[in-house]
Target: ABC transporter ATP-binding protein
Amino acid sequence: MIELVNLTKRFKQIEAVKNLNLFIERGEIIGLLGPNGAGKSTAISMLSTLVEPTSGDVLFENKSIVKNPSSFRKIVGIVPQEIALYEDLSAEENLYFFGRIYHLRGKKLKQKVDEVLEQIGLTDRRKDIVKKFSGGMKRRLNIGVAMLHDPEVIIMDEPTVGIDPQSRNYILETVKRLNQERKMTVLYTSHYMEEVELLCDRIYIMDKGNLIASGTKDEIKKILSNENTISIKADRFSEGFLTALREHPSVTSVTVGEKEVLVIVPRSVRMFSEVIQIAEKHGIELHSVDNKAPTLEDVFLHLTGRALRD
Model:
């Protein structure tokens, strides 16, 4: 349905996206992941026709949307990372305003506004001014705006940032419902790996402008199939202990949490006894040392050296 072909964007001396190639099939939910500065937002801006690429192309049903963006704009909905609403207007007034931009009029516009308010759970707040809404309600209304014209494709750039768990769950259920009931194709970016695990059929991972991995969740987890993730738990970790782990010749990567350290080593290496010895040497009282099945977060750390929310 959609294909990005050697897509590149340069800003003066900075190459934000480098020869990006990916495809999206009709009806899929695709996850696009990457740490800050990976090039995700630039890629999305080119896909949504807001930014023209330096080179390469974006194809929709084998036709260039770089050369003819207007046809694609009619069938795509955008949920931007930043709230894009008029806060001095009511929820209903916002939807009527944006509906007219989509060339909806009369009974059709009223019908769509009523329908969207029902879908995003804001019917009883339709007359309320948006500035009085919680962050989660604003996010839901933002999604409602993108849905007004029944798009075939919806691009959602971190739609759950900074909201409460209840609103977040509502948005995730809305995304699943749109995909299942309307067969809507979704491109989804997030800083929450559990959202990607829940929603996405396939995943692309970017870093420093490059595409570094792609596939289903299981295929991506197999990147670490020849390695083990060891979970080390304690109340505290000294710098000496962490340095010793990082400098160990068998250790591929070390990720430090508040009370857990994750160490990735080749599957053939047995590290348990050495971890215990290093801990004893540095006076660390361990609670547990366990093998851990690889997660998407582990693969992401392995590939980029950073956590998704860094």
Remarks:
- DSSP finds eleven helices and 14 strands in the chain.
